[in-house]
Specification:
Length: 132
C-alpha cells in the first residue's frame, strides 16, 4: 500500500511540472524519406525565440534564452559556437525551414513527445543534466 501511495505522489509531482503555454501546443510533423520534420519557424514563434532568416545563405540564426544557433540545410548545426551533427539534414519548402526533431531538442533543450498516429509533436522541458 505504501508503494502505491509513493508512486502516486511521484506521478502527481511529474504531471504538476509547470508548463509554459508553448509546451502544450501540438506541432504538425512532415515526413520526408521516413524521417519526421517540424517547421523551425513555427516552433521558434511558439517559444518566442528571436529568429532571423538569411536568404542569400539559406540559413537561419536563432536566439533563445542563452542559446545561439545557426542552421542551414546541411547536417551540421552551430549551437553556442560549437558544431552539432544532426540525424538528417533540414530542408527548405517555400520560405520555411523544416528541421528534424533532434534539432529542436538540441536548440531548445526539450523532450520530444512524438505522436506517430496523428503526426504531431509536443515539447516539454528536459530535465537538467546531472551536476558533476
Amino acid at each position: 500500500m505504501r508503494r502505491r501511495v509513493a508512486v502516486g505522489f511521484l506521478l502527481e509531482m511529474v504531471w504538476a511540472w509547470p508548463l509554459r503555454a508553448n509546451e502544450r501546443e501540438l506541432f504538425a510533423v512532415t515526413m520526408r524519406r521516413g524521417q519526421p520534420f517540424v517547421s523551425l519557424m513555427s516552433v521558434a514563434q511558439a517559444f518566442q525565440a528571436n529568429l532571423r532568416i538569411i536568404p542569400d545563405e539559406r540559413a537561419v540564426n536563432l536566439q533563445f534564452d542563452n542559446q545561439e544557433a545557426s542552421i542551414t540545410d546541411g547536417t551540421v548545426l552551430t549551437l553556442n559556437r560549437q558544431l552539432v551533427v544532426l540525424s538528417v539534414a533540414p530542408y527548405w519548402r517555400g520560405g520555411e525551414l523544416f528541421v528534424p526533431l533532434d534539432a529542436v531538442q538540441k536548440i531548445f533543450y526539450v523532450t520530444v513527445h512524438w505522436r506517430i498516429h496523428t503526426r504531431q509533436v509536443a515539447f516539454s522541458p528536459a530535465l537538467p543534466p546531472p551536476r558533476r
